[in-house]
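In the current project phase, the collection of sequences with tokenised folds has grown. One resulting record follows, to show the layout:
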Amino acid sequence: MAGRAATSTAKWAREFLFRRVSSNPLGGAIRNSSSSSAPGASSTPKVPHFSKKGRILTGATIGLAIAGGAYVSTADEATFCGWLFSATKVVNPLFALLDAEFAHKLAVTAAARGWVPREKRPDPQILGLEVWGRKFSNPIGLAAGFDKNAEATEGLLGLGFGFVEVGSVTPVPQEGNPKPRIFRLREDGAIINRCGFNSEGIVVVAKRLGAQHGKRMLAETSGTSSSPSDEGKPGGKSGPGILGVNLGKNKTSEDAAADYVQGVHNLSQYADYLVINVSSPNTAGLRMLQGRKQLKDLVKKVQAARDEMQWGDDGPPPLLVKIAPDLSRGELEDIAAVALALHLDGLIISNTTVSRPDPVSNNPVSTETGGLSGKPLFPLSTNMLREMYTLTRGKIPLIGCGGVSSGEDAYKKIRAGATLVQLYTGFAYGGPALIPQIKEELVSCLERDGFKSIQEAIGADHK
């Protein structure tokens, strides 16, 4: 195993060096806004050019690869895997030297190219669960917004997430709001963004997801990845791990329902679950769709579009709605009523907030317009999660999202009523090493309180 890992590391380093030398470095310091992505439908993103800070990051990464190649000769695969994840703690702080959006683009590129660790260690059995007939190896997922255009799903799932959600995807490509539009509040563990559904559009994303789906089907038919024992293994349409697709509407669209229906028709065959995003604060008028009548009408149309399609034995993908954390008690009651009446498959709680809770309100960056995510969002989103679990009487699976940066945070979401948990900002700051750390801490929390499975802990605060 060690020999194969060493060979893989050497191959990785050669590829990295080749692509690095083949590109033309970008001179000068990176400014506040990075250049826009080149248009096109290629399945793998182009490698961003590097500034002086980028070259430092490159050098550090190559150094780790070389060190890893030397270390692996004396380590087994599991030990080496752990070392790789720990080693990212050295590289990840260097991303803070880069412009926020450039760093994000670089991280997506790294995951797409396979320049990130791959989790080889199986998840503890205590973390496994089944939701919507899908088997999750663990309940920790990556929220929408990181891989907006499905460029890096394989690499991100390989990091050890139980599920990854791509998007939001809009029917027609759009660039989103003007840059700069992502702002770090490092001391608060937070980010403010006003991206505005920047998306390469349904056609490009469908092409990428279709290629990934076809690759897996080919592997299964050739017998390289299927066996009788595979039937009980966690995974979905994209292979190991579950893939969600988050649907958005175009900024200039006058028919929101038509936009979401188009997303269903083009992307649902590749999704293990679908999400209607009606809660981004960065698209004018979008949050109005959370009103009782508006939401009911929208969900009915999207459900009808999904159900009219032909599905195999697995049936159609579950349909979820992602809501805002800035809703009143009455608005929450309306959403719960719609969810129960229409047998919605789940809710994601929550999106970013337009509020600026303490201590963020004292940060000069807090005056920037946009949605706030990260640690300051945790109390607000978790309280709303707890309320929604009560309102839906625990009958609808809830995904807890907002401010998760530790296993204890994830555990609190689960006890409050979350079946699954998502993170984004915590991952942006903590990097790949945070994923195994959260899972390890979550196991400790469950065992500490005497739970034998995740399922037993869901909604424990209400029992």
